[in-house]
């Protein structure tokens, strides 16, 4: 989704060659698809959906999304995942490394 500055990279060897899956990536604009924010939390990027759900890869994928953060040293960046079964948002990574056993890592490119 170059026109939205959003991409998902799957490295070679992340899936067995014999396995074929259709992967999708979408930017969501409907407010019902976004996380409800609490006080002192600001959305700095769009809500992105990728799938299929429950896909397993042997190497990390790279999801790139645009953000509006300036002076990132003053921000605590968190990445959230929406549980398919419970429909609840769960923090899976943080720039302050305060998530036990993170399922993802955050890298901010300026």
UniProtKB/TrEMBL annotation:
Transmembrane segments: none annotated. One of its GO terms (biological process) is motor neuron axon guidance. PROSITE patterns: ZU5 (PS51145). This is Netrin receptor UNC5B. Keywords: Receptor. GO terms for molecular function: netrin receptor activity. Residues 1-110 form the ZU5 domain. The keyword Signal does not apply. It holds the Pfam family ZU5. It comes from Culex pipiens (House mosquito). One of its GO terms (cellular component) is membrane. The keyword Nuclease does not apply. PANTHER family: NETRIN RECEPTOR UNC-5, NETRIN RECEPTOR UNC5.
């Amino acid at each position: 989704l170059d026109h939205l500055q959003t991409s998902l990279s799957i490295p070679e060897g992340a899936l067995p060659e014999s396995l074929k899956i259709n992967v999708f990536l979408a930017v969501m604009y409907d407010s019902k698809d976004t996380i409800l924010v609490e006080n002192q939390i600001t959305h700095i990027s769009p809500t992105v959906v990728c799938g299929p759900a429950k896909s397993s890869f042997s190497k990390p994928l790279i999801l790139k999304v645009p953000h509006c953060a300036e002076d990132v040293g003053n921000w605590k960046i968190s990445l959230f995942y929406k549980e398919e079964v419970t429909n609840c948002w769960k923090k899976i990574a943080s720039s302050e490394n305060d998530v036990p056993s993170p399922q993802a890592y955050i890298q901010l490119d300026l």
